[in-house]
Amino acid sequence: MVFRAPLYWGRRVGVKRVNEFSGNVLEAGVGTGMALPHYDKRLKVTGIDLSQEMLAKAERRVRGGGLANVDGLLAMDAGNLAFPDNHFDVTIAMYVITVVPDPVKVMSELERVTKPGGHVILVNHFSAEQGLRAAAEQWLERYASRVGWNPVFPKARILGRTRLVLEEDQSVAPFGLFTMLTFRKPEV
User: Fold this and answer.
1) Neighbour count for residue 152 (Cβ, 10 Å)
2) DSSP-derived secondary structure for 15-66
């Protein structure tokens, strides 16, 4: 319940973007599966998460909602995916990249499992470079371990670290605190 309202807009925008594509989708960090009912039924969705408890809730959501397009919910580390190269048409990670120990490794894994010409989508909080918001994020950084995410996480930390090409950088409500980045994996 704590995360439902503030993260609603980003999930909505991320899923809407995924629904513009077709094929097989990987949602890294699926959690309790809040986004699963909103994916277009023509998409085949696989969700992964580290937490078995969260996956159990996602499984109940899938069964209760009759979500036949959810192909699987698996316990897996986004930094060490057990999928073959070039497996998914679209990969999405919402509110994940600032909570993983090695964000560049996660980006590399998302790139690896995405087909050439496919898309990688991130929805996340990225820190401001200046101004009042940047000052507040700097102040909050000392509490990062307590709040469970890193408030000082510039986009530069992941941009240009893989071969992925940034196609879109979209500010997301509320108040532009979140961002959706859409990348395309180049054709070989």
Assistant:
1) 16
2) HHHHTTS-SEEEEET-TT-TTGGGS-TTSEEEEEES-HHHHHHHHHHHHHHT
Instruction: Give the C-alpha separation, 162 to 160, whole Å.
Output: 6
4: left (phi over 0), alpha (psi -120 to 50) or beta: alpha
What is the chain's Cα-based Rg? 16
pTM of the model: 0.91
Structure tokens at 163: 């071969």
Q: Are 36 and 54 contacting, i.e. CB atoms less than 8 angstroms apart?
A: no
Could you report the per-residue pLDDT of 17-30, keeping only the tens digit for each? 999 999 999 999 99
Q: For 127-139, what is each residue's pLDDT tens digit?
A: 777 777 667 767 7
Distance from C-alpha of 167 to C-alpha of 180, rounded to nearest angstrom: 11
Q: 141, 89 in Cβ contact below 8 A?
A: no
Distance CA 147, CA 153 (A): 14
CB 169 within 8 A of CB 181: yes
Instruction: For 31-56, write each residue's pLDDT tens digit.
Output: 999 999 999 999 999 999 999 999 99
Q: Is 164 helix (H, G, I), strand (E, B) or coil?
A: coil
56 vs 79: CA distance, rounded Å: 21
